[in-house]
């Protein structure tokens, strides 16, 4: 009985440590992203007061959608054996994936409209460019084995 309890305790603590580390990595990336955006956008004080509340709301809404998607585990990529599913189930998986992508796009459009109605379009363009360059830089850093 003792070995089983020890095994369960070790399993639990290692899972907890992994979850803590994963959460820490996510927060590190988000902090790096904010620093990166601040540098690339070079916003005026007035633009800063407009941009960050919109950005934070946008990130919150996208985060909630990702959490919902993950919670439901509705993803075509999560199905390991397509052959064991019925045609209806495959169709439903694809439709669910498309629905999540559409909702994500709807959020993107909503916040694009908020940004362009509140800030100069060139500032909005800088934001979109910075988003893309951030993704490339982050991928490059992780490929190189550096985490920030």
Description:
The protein is mostly helical and 148 residues long. The chain has one domain (30-143). The chain contains 4 helices and no strands. The chain is globular. This is Sensor of ECF-type sigma factor. Keywords: Signal. Residues 1-19 form the signal peptide.
Search tags:
148 residues, 83% helix, 4 helices
Provide a quick synopsis of the model:
By secondary structure, the chain is mostly helical.
What is the typical, i.e. mean, pLDDT?
Answer: 82
- The run of helices and strands is HHHH
The multimeric state of the shown protein is single chain
The secondary structure category is: mainly alpha
| Number of separate structural domains | 1
Which radius of gyration do the C-alpha atoms yield?
20 Å
Overall spatial form: globular
| Percentage beta strand | under 5%
Largest sheet at a glance? none
- Summed up, the helix count is 4
**β-strand number:** 0
Termini Cα gap: 44 Å
* Low-pLDDT segments, ≥5 res: 4-22
Helix content: over 70%
What is the secondary structure topology, with strand pairs?
Layout: H1 2-41, H2 45-72, H3 87-118, H4 121-143
Helix pairs in contact: 1-4, 2-3
